[in-house]
Amino acid sequence: MVAAEAKHPSVYLKTAFTTLYYRFGAFFILGALAVGIVVPYNDEILQAVWLGAGGGKGTAAASPYVIAMENLGTSVLQHTVNALILTSIFSAGNTYVYCASRALYSLSLDGRAPRILSYCTSKGVPIYCFAIVMLFSFLSFLQAHSGSAVVLTWLASIITGGILISYIIISITFLNYYRACQVQGVERRERPYYGYFQPYGTYVALVFLTLVLLGYGYYAFRPSWNVETFFQSYSMQILSVILFFGWKIINKTDSVTPDKVELVWERPRIDRYEDATTEPPLGFWEEMIHIVGFPTKKGMLDA
């Protein structure tokens, strides 16, 4: 999605995808392993927060990282972790606003949303899409009231189910792309980015995500059947199936076979754009320095 607005998509996105593995491994896998070592499952503070006795459920106090710092007895580290959580929330919010506004903009271009949403400012920002997406951020205030928090819980569960479905669709899309490359004789290694361990890695991800999606609301069946919990957990799954087959039946769309998949699409246009861009791409640290306003090597040369 960000490729459409990247100055050098073949360079920047390749670097982003390559470093993603290291960031994911360091921040998520190693982070979860570390916090699982210092905060056991039977930690008193963790159990109190989860059961609501500690009064911190749904807040930063429920974070196992904060609990770990509390167990160490250092108040400074608690505030440090809270600050890091705040930056993480800001980063996630920034990403979701960007993706949601661009997805709505794309729907408008395809004629599946009001045409007025395709309007952009002189800087290329779909301002009306951005405004609509930002309105949903006010739903976060539902957490401030215990009664309204139920609505927020429903929304969070539905959105989480939608995210899982999105990653399942991404996996299926890649498998179709992989087959199309094989049938049409396209060498993936010649592309700017080449994914390793394929298609086996995608099959593993697809099976794992499907199991998570099916077991997402297992607690609706234990210890007894709960209708509200079931629909809270599986509404998006049911709705997605209805929308998918409903769209195919109403519009009589056909599935594209691997030999007819369009693998070139806008690539020649992108190549011409990158060839015409004389400004060399910036490195990561130089880009960060440029964002905060300090002069970079390129800026000093231009001056």
From TrEMBL:
Residues 1-253 form the Amino acid permease/ SLC12A domain. The chain crosses the membrane at residues 20-41, 83-105, 125-145, 151-178, 199-219, 231-250. Keywords: Membrane, Transmembrane, Transmembrane helix. This is Amino acid permease/ SLC12A domain-containing protein. It is a multi-pass membrane protein. It is found in: Membrane. It comes from Bionectria ochroleuca (Gliocladium roseum). Signal peptide: none annotated. Pfam families: AA_permease (PF00324). One of its GO terms (molecular function) is amino acid transmembrane transporter activity. GO terms for cellular component: membrane.
